[in-house]
Amino acid sequence: MPVTSSSAPTARARRLTTTFYLYAFLDDFVLLYPLYALLFTDTGLSVAQISSLFVIWSLTGIVLEVPSGVWADAVSRRLLLAGAPLLGAVGFGLWVAAPSYWVFALGFVLWGARGALQSGASEALLYDELDRLGLADRYGRVIGRASTVSLLGVLLAIAVATPVFAVGGYPAVGVASVLASLLCALVALALPEHRTPASAAVPALPEAAVAVPAVPETTVAVTAGGADAHGRVGPETVDASSVTLREKETADPGPGGGRGGIAVAPGELVQVVAPAPVAEVEPSGPLAILRVALAEARNSRAVRRALLLLPAMLGIWGGLDEYVPLLAGEVVPASNVPLLVLLVWVGVMLGGLLTPLGQRLTARQFAVTVGAAAIALAVGALAGRPAGFVLVAVAFCALQMASLVADVRLQESITGPARATVTSLAGLGTELVTIAVYGGYALASTVAGHGVVFGLLALPYLVLAVGLGRAGAGGDRRRTVAGGSR
Asked: pTM of the prediction?
């Protein structure tokens, strides 16, 4: 239940968001990020072996995505967010302590598990805590800023990695990465969590036990027909869970008495009270939690649409992001590639900050934004000049904003207790779309340049924009995309 006091929510929300931002920063402040591929090649791995490691990484995320979401709904999400960085710390430490193919593979399994544990759990914890404070409408702004802070962590890690590597080589970079992960775990323990995990849910009372509700009572006189003079009491036999006797503790069963009821004599005064509210108990087993999540996706149109929109929106440009350096290499010398990559990343960071603006767009405006981003991406990639990267950056900015708005729509549409599991379903879809992008890019790049491949992969966004536009035209055009009807 949301907190309704006047000043407490703001202070608690500030603590929540500040801790969440720090967690997001430390999670990506890993100095090994810009150097691990170089570590692999220096160890003697071939391109095929390195590619197989990336496959292991992706498959781990796919296999563990939904089970980790179920786990996040069954136990403390805060503990999962604290444990996830520890897995990364072990992996990074092993990489620099005993570099070899199988150690690298184990590290990627741990890294994939780390990401799976965080996916779903972080969004669910943040949204539920904000909702408890009555500030769920701030989720889009907070998650957008968190994504920007996360990218800042990556950029700072790149900047710091160079001097650290120059001084201490891979061991120094590895130790720094392990320390950052340990700090990230400690910060996670400071995150507030007031939700009762499903595994700790209070069992229901036995049927024989009847609780007396503390609610106002109404005294009425029961006539032979089972109702008072105003017709306010129906059957002659009244359910024992909703009636207390005023003049007599018991009554003869009589012909109308049955199981679970009390026979009331005509003219007898009774007090009719409202039935006690039944507390909602969260599903208590992994399969039960998964069934609840699937049922919500099946029964809620808003959830279904968000589960389709988020992977389509995030999976494509999230996969293309890995190939931006290759696209830049076609138009500038290698020494200038980082500058163009930085320009695109600035666009992504701005997209996170623009999330609140995206939430205020109407459905038609949202569709136009996605379509314009697709055109900008294709034109900028096909330009073959450095200036084209301005359009690529604008496209990535808009697509990042649209992806975060899709995430907001998903969180706002979820009403059941399996929020992390439903979010993990979206994460699974995103992983599958991204792998499809990797495969499609590999095939297309054998017959076309990087600019052409970027242009081809921008086309699905045009199709998506047309679909969103038609859906928006069928409803209220002033409805914001942050909402959604059931």
From this structure: 0.74
Helix (H) or strand (E) holding 442: helix 419-444
What are the pLDDT digits (tens) for 132-190? 999 999 999 999 999 999 999 988 988 888 899 889 999 999 999 999 999 999 999 99
One-letter identity of residue 363 = A
Backbone angles phi, psi at 24, to 5 degrees: -60, -40
**Pairwise CA distance, residues 260 & 252, whole Å:** 14
pLDDT by residue (tens digit) across 46-94? 877 887 888 888 899 899 999 999 999 999 999 999 999 999 999 999 9
Amino acid, res. 16: L
DSSP assignment of 100-124 equals SHHHHHHHHHHHHHHHHHHTTHHHH
DSSP state of 362: B
Helices (H), 32-138: 36-43, 47-74, 77-97, 101-118, 121-132
What does the radius of gyration of the chain's CA atoms come to, in whole angstroms?
28
φ and ψ of 362, to 5 deg: -75, 170
Buried b (16+ CB within 10 A) or exposed e, 405-416: bbbbbbbbbbeb
Give the H/E segment covering residue 346: helix 337-353
Q: Write the CA distances from 161 to 93, 152, 173, 270, integer angstroms.
A: 16, 14, 7, 78
> What is the dihedral angle through the alpha carbons of 120, 121, 124, 128, rounded to the nearest 10 degrees?
180
Tokens linked to 204? 């229901």
- Single-letter amino acid code for the residue at 33: Y
**DSSP per residue over 142-161, as a string?**
HHHHHHHHHHHHHHHHHHHH
What the block records as the tokens of 324 is 């931006």
Rounded to a whole number of angstroms, the distance between the first and last alpha carbons of the chain is 22
Overall residue count recorded for the chain in this entry: 486
Reduce the DSSP state of residue 238 to 3 states and report it. strand
CA distance 59 to 162: 31
User: Which of 180, 254, 235, 148 shows the shortest CA–CA distance to 32?
Assistant: 180
Question: Do strands 269-273 and 237-239 pair parallel, antiparallel, or not at all (unpaired)?
Answer: unpaired
Instruction: At 333, list the tokens.
Output: 């010398």
**Cα–Cα distance measured from residue 21 to residue 142, given in angstroms and rounded to the nearest whole number:** 8
CA-CA distance, 423 to 426, in Å (whole number)? Answer: 5
